[in-house]
Amino acid sequence: KSIAPYLMEFLDDDDPRIRANTVEALGQLKDKKLKKILKVYLKDPNNRLRANAIVALFYFREFKKPALADLSEMLISSSSDMICSGLYAAGEIKAKKFIPILLEKIKDTDINVEINAAIALVKMKDPHGLEAIIDYLKSGDNELTTRIIETLPRIPEKIRYQILMVVSHNIDDEQIKMIFEIMKKSVFDFEYEKSFLRNILKQHQVSV
What we know:
- The protein is built from 13 helices and no strands.
- By secondary structure, it is mainly α.
């Protein structure tokens, strides 16, 4: 029995985050009966709802074109929140036609836009995204490093390991320890990454 009817009750919730999470959950069902319901959210004023609707509907052939059209609108929006959610959607559906726009956004003056553009490019296997993430982690800036680490779960584990391999060979022990400590405090599971960094620090005789 489908859980869609139960989930749909949350589409009327007052909290837009709950509505956005519901659209995401409904999209993961890939149920063609939900297409008309999800279509409504392609024009929703809430950035997360709109992005999740794009990702959900892109699965259906007849909605690929309108989903990409709406995504295009999001990426040229005057709202940084709308742009960031658009970048998220672009990465999720691997919309490579937008790579030229993403390469512009990776140089944006808004760091949130920059980071989301980099993550999207990584998901599309574009080397510019990987270079940007590596540069962020090499910066030595605690706040920026923390923000990047909190986005790493959106990247496949294999690629995260490759990033840490490159970064660890290009920064000093103090920075490696900083990254390790940030991961240690994170709510995300970085056991593999922490083990890798811990071994490097032990080899360098740095206590952790």
